[in-house]
Write a structure and sequence with these properties.
alpha+beta, homodimer, 19 helices, about 800 residues
């Protein structure tokens, strides 16, 4: 059940286009959210869709993934084992600025008389473009075209091209290309999800240079001891006369071009921008690296950048696109969602994916389970290399997870609920450290990765090590309860739903822990039997004793899964059903999200759900539930679920599809896809909801197409809702590319790449080869199950 | 079960004396704790037992009750309804200082060659005295005698008399009497119970004056906008020649007497000290008030102060003393405990009683439920006027409690878990705001106060108003559960035991809430029937509707009280018994208190108890339990109880007495009495544990003597443990003073004041009149129940 109104923007905001997000009119009401929607990023760096002119601006933002400052977390009341080190991804030096003055008048959109205006995020080209014609009070008309990109091909490079043409007169034109580090102090707005301001500026200048058209600036953080270098270089192309000046301070640089503009003569300024940080190079080498990146960009030029960008995205779309016919807007929404996944992950390399990608710094730019549960499935099925990187990144933090387990009082490893550098940064343990399920979530993603990619190498090295340490944690955390016939119980944990914290036997957690334990047992036993060298390595790294594995096995076997016989449902936790049901009827819309209006204790004592919890378990481990249980669980929990978290509707959609509530499923899927574009949460201005974005892909692939992949076996059970005519997408499975194409009459499974794949469609087993696609006829009735009929592949 | 070692000090520390705490040798190991043990206070102001010379010093402390600074509570992660305003009782300007220089050598105890040394807290005189003889390297011997007091009679006055005599030579002597405000910055020690340092000095100077021998200083707080004025004046008496200089800065003052000391000629400096704050007078009047207090003190002189102090204490002891024979140390310990109760409460007037009284600023000087549950019984039975003041003080914060209820989402009133100014100051709601039982605790104390004193007036005005608002909160907080046959359940609350937080149906809370509701119903119904005018007043103040009372009644009737049929015990909360039992065997002594060594989640998921919870319910509402239940409950919970809180052993002692575990009871009572003197918690240096101190009195009166006073009916069931020969104490009941005198052969109940009182002794009803005491013979066997024999009173 959704308790939010979505706000539908006027038609000049995001009019329908298959490949573009367009804004046809400047409208200050949408300024803040457009900065998120039009953000450009490559997973390494991100720039919000702020205007080149620097104003108007709502939230100016430039971020380098994982470039962060640390700070001591202050507690009103401290307790043992509380997380100590806060981490905040920093808003760094803004290098995009190109300020335009004509006749000394600045271009300022809110007051400018704009004869034309269009801004476009081109998702095929990977560029943000803007074209406008400005008519000045003097009657002079000025055409301004800009185009910028954050390069996917060149991780450290971005570029802006800014072209000004006086259309009907001549005038002095000044193009002031600037870079500026400006620190914004703490504001008063109190939203626990927002990022924290610092009392002191987190970045201090550490030198720079300015020569010809190039400026370099360098900054250092105070506590985390990280260094950032950024540089810009310029090319100006014009037939008009111009002069150039260059200046620099500690925190800023200016390259000013004063042009005697002639009518009809374009003035084109190209600005190359590069960022390097001490995460990837020694601090003293950063300026040299920046120089080198800029040298190459100057040599290759802007058009080559554009070509490479297009080529990169062609490849991305060929692997990742989801084509949809029938719901026009949905196609655009989905592409924007997929494009965000690309922008958040493409060049993360050695870093994670923040809860808002690189479009905002909400949640301090921290990495959560969102990555593993909501984003990794997409990457595993479309770009396994990146999925591997992200799992490797988790593995790189294993030592800190071991330390954290010690701090909290456990053997093994406890991955941080939120982090940048591997240290737990959650300052509210009830909805932080208590979410032990993070361990199982990561191992779940590992399992899926290994099964779908077949990357046994990674599983047997990094994977096995993480499995051992997480399994250790689970058996220490829980206990064999004498009061419950020796069942293994896990107490005082928080499940995915943060409106119920520190509970006993959260169904999701217990199921996921069992899966974690089982997979650890299986993996260790496989190594011991079949890969003695790997096993020896593992024992070396973990001091594993064989007796431990027997305990994991017993804990998994004896795992207590709450079930209420009377209602025939799985209680979200052992006492969830004891609680009073929330009074939804008397809760007005403006009281959502509830967390901003009610004390946690009030939420905790009611049956009210922030986000899919049992529903998520039914998705991830659907094979542990009967169809009847799924239906009863969904029927029970759906009305209690507020969707106050953006991580919810996509999962609710998938389960609704599965149990046949097709229209509800479609509605939820739409919500997921529109989460940011229709600003469902009211906070898109602070960044794109990457989990919901990943969830949108999940809703299509696991919802519409009904993919299930328990233990690596793919099965489909597609159900097209009304209005959706045709869906096509690809999945990469063990190096082979499978295309799924569904319409009202049939589903077509074809291999684009590879040799042969055996999958299931509903009850049928299908063998798909490169030559022989499998085609299954389906009932035309919207949402109906596929007819059980021999597939064309089989019939041949 | 106690998991702590107590440290027994050497014999020169607190050697046995019935009325004095003595220190026979300066020992720096005991410096910090002696500052607490030798603290002097009157409930309005308190001075730690720091030496006049200013050094050596561990924690210098001067406190004015309720004089505090506020600060915004910072949360790592904020949530709705979290307490916003921290409050810290300030360590104010130190006015005690008298530095001694002989031949320009300062007296510094750690290095001085002391031929004699004795420091004494005289609990009959109400003074802190010290006598020493200092032999200098030159062979000169100096006698130094000092005596000081914080006046009980004159709320704003303290005084020090410092007498120096050169014994065998002449020498220049300088007595530098100083006052100084020194702010100590935040130290690194991380103990959540300690007070917070400020980043900026909380007190800013706001003027002063210096004239003749008088210095006045004034300071203001930054945020709470409170003003403090303090002043000193001096009298010097000596036959020697001397000169005097006076000086003042913003933060300090000095009155220096340079004396040409002659052998055998005493030099006696008397210093009067006064503090006034804007809590009791307009800021601009404070200096005048201070002048007036000093004028009076100068006129009356030190000896009159001493006389008045003695008179005040004679009266106190006549009402409050507990005489014990048989356990020599225990008599001294008990007197010290009683004296602390006097020092913490005597002149509180318009303020509360902090968790450490005025002996330290641990817990920021906040007021907790300690006052109502641990201290008020003593005051109700010995000085009801002060008990009334404290309840009136709670009532004065009712409006803030109403606001707080709104913030947390309830109607009615929610008293703050910890506060100085009425605002909730608990920054950790799980062991703060969630302790809703504070409401019932206060109402419990109100009920006892009304029943024992017969003060119907207070009950019908302030009391009834608080009863209505607290009852409203309870019925909103809980709900009639359809899953539990319509029983009234209270979820997501924390009981007294803070090692289990945010639980469902805490037995203590539910029982106490029921008592609260019943008492509210009864009081409102009485008013409606018998006091229509009062009832109208009440309705005016609370907008009470008659229908509300019916719901309170139903909630009380339907209150769910967890009970485990199998074990025959009351679970501490609804799922307490589901938890894993703490592994006490493998927890070394140095891991206690557990809260300093384990993450809260680890504690919360185990059966391990910080402090009496079900046991406390069995004491406060013993009539709700059968004797068998009490025994089974005690047997179950006692081994799980760490005593990590100082609020525990006294209660465990009382229940142990009741169920006949006499030696265990005695041991626990000793622990309570010795809590501070033997430094059981290892933190006496930070202040005296006022709750445990109150608990010591409870352990004697409700333990040894077996007093129970359900609904105001007094009954006794005395049981003397081995080694205790004789116990005598008085109780003031409805204006009459009842003396109880127990020895091995009989118990004697006599009326010291009043006409007639009917009490019970075990199964017997006894009528005691002024002329006719009741004497009951008892079995001589230690701990045996009284023999059921006609009382001498009856036989007459």
């Amino acid at each position: 059940m959704l308790h939010r109104e979505r706000s539908v923007p006027p038609e000049y905001i995001y009019p329908f286009d298959e490949w573009k997000m367009i804004e046809r009119r400047f409208d200050s009401r949408f300024l803040a959210q457009s900065e998120t929607i039009f953000a450009t990023a490559n997973g390494y760096m991100g720039m919000r869709g702020n205007f080149e002119e620097g104003a108007p601006v709502a939230y100016n933002g430039t971020y380098i993934n994982a470039f962060h400052e640390t700070w001591p977390i202050v507690y009103g009341e401290e307790a043992h084992g509380f997380a100590k080190t806060g981490q905040t991804m920093l808003n760094v030096t803004d290098c995009r600025l190109i300020k335009l003055y004509v006749d000394d008048e600045p271009l300022y959109l809110p007051t400018a008389n704009l004869l034309q205006y269009e801004r476009t995020l081109n998702m095929q080209a990977g560029t943000l473009e803007r074209e406008l014609v400005w008519e000045m009070a003097s009657g002079k008309r000025v055409s301004v075209k800009s185009r910028r990109l954050v390069s996917f091909q060149h991780r450290h490079l971005a570029a802006v091209q800014y072209e000004v043409t006086l259309l009907n007169a001549k005038a002095p034109v000044v193009l002031s290309s600037e870079m500026a580090y400006a620190y914004h102090m703490d504001d008063a707005e109190q939203d626990p999800r927002k990022t924290r301001g610092f009392k002191q500026r987190p970045l201090s200048p550490s030198g720079g240079s300015a020569k010809d058209c190039r400026i370099l600036l360098s900054h250092k953080t105070r506590n985390s001891k990280m260094t950032l270098a950024c540089g810009v270089d310029h090319v100006i192309e014009t037939a008009c006369n111009y002069s150039h000046t260059l200046s620099r301070t500690d925190d800023s640089g200016k390259s000013v071009f004063a042009v005697e503009a002639q009518p009809g003569q374009p003035i084109r300024l190209t600005k190359f921008i590069s960022y390097h940080t001490s995460r990837s190079a020694p601090p003293e080498a950063l300026r040299e690296r920046t120089d080198r990146t800029l040298d190459r960009a100057m040599r290759d030029g802007f058009s080559q950048l554009l070509e490479e960008q297009r080529a990169f995205l062609d490849d991305f779309w060929s692997r990742s696109d989801v084509e949809i016919e029938g719901d026009a807007a949905v196609q655009q929404y989905i592409r924007w969602n997929l494009f965000q996944l690309c922008q958040a992950s493409a060049r993360a390399e050695g870093a994670g994916i923040g809860a808002r990608g690189l479009t905002g710094d909400t949640y301090e730019g921290h990495y959560f389970w969102d990555t593993e549960i909501y984003v990794l499935p997409f990457l595993i099925y479309t770009e396994p290399r990146i999925a591997r990187n992200l799992l490797k990144f988790r593995h790189s933090m294993l030592e800190k997870a071991r330390q954290r387990a010690r701090e909290v009082g456990h053997p093994g490893a406890l991955f941080p609920w939120r982090t940048i550098n591997g240290d737990e940064a959650s300052a509210y343990y009830a909805a932080g450290t208590a979410q032990y399920h993070i361990n199982a979530d990561i191992m779940y993603a590992l399992k899926k990765y290994a099964e779908i990619t077949g990357d046994v190498e990674f599983l047997h090295r990094e994977g096995a090590e993480m499995l051992v340490e997480t399994a250790r944690l689970w058996v220490d955390l829980g206990f064999f309860s004498s009061r419950a016939d020796g069942r293994f119980r896990i107490h005082a944990v928080t499940g995915p739903d943060e409106y119920a914290t520190v509970v006993n036997d959260n169904t999701y957690t217990n199921l996921m822990a069992r899966e974690n334990l089982r997979f650890a047992v299986r993996t260790v036993e496989t190594l011991r039997k079949d890969h003695p060298e790997r096993f020896t390595e593992l024992v070396d790294k973990t001091q594993l004793e064989v007796a431990e594995v027997a305990i994991w096995k017993r804990a998994a076997e004896q795992m207590y899964i709450p079930f209420d016989e009377k209602l025939g449902i799985h209680p979200q936790d052992d006492t969830f059903l004891e609680r009073e049901v929330w009074d939804f009827e008397n809760t007005p819309h403006d009281k959502y999200p509830l967390l901003l209006h009610f004390h946690p204790l009030v939420l905790y004592r009611h049956q009210v759900i922030k986000q899919a919890d049992v529903a998520l378990a039914m998705f991830l481990l659907g094979n542990e539930f009967t169809p009847e249980q799924k239906k009863r669980n969904f029927d029970y929990y759906d009305p209690l679920t507020t969707g106050d978290s953006s991580l919810s509707v996509s999962i609710q959609s998938i389960i609704a599809f599965e149990i046949g509530y097709i229209e509800k499923a479609r509605e939820y899927a739409r919500y997921a896809a529109m989460m940011d574009l229709a600003d469902v949460g009211g906070n898109v201005k602070h960044g794109a909801h990457i989990a919901s974005i990943g969830g949108t892909w999940l809703a299509i692939v696991f919802g519409f197409a009904g993919l299930r992949d328990y233990d690596g076996q793919l099965s489909f059970n597609p159900r097209l809702p009304k209005r959706i005519g045709h869906v096509r997408f690809c999945l990469t499975v063990r190096g082979q590319r499978l295309q799924i194409e569904m319409d009202r009459s049939q589903v077509r499974y074809s291999l684009q790449d590879g040799k042969e794949l055996t999958i299931r469609h509903a009850e049928q087993e299908l063998r798909v080869t490169l030559d022989a696609p499998a085609v299954v006829a389906v009932d035309d009735k919207p949402g109906a199950k596929v007819r059980s009929r021999e597939s064309s592949a089989r019939r041949r």
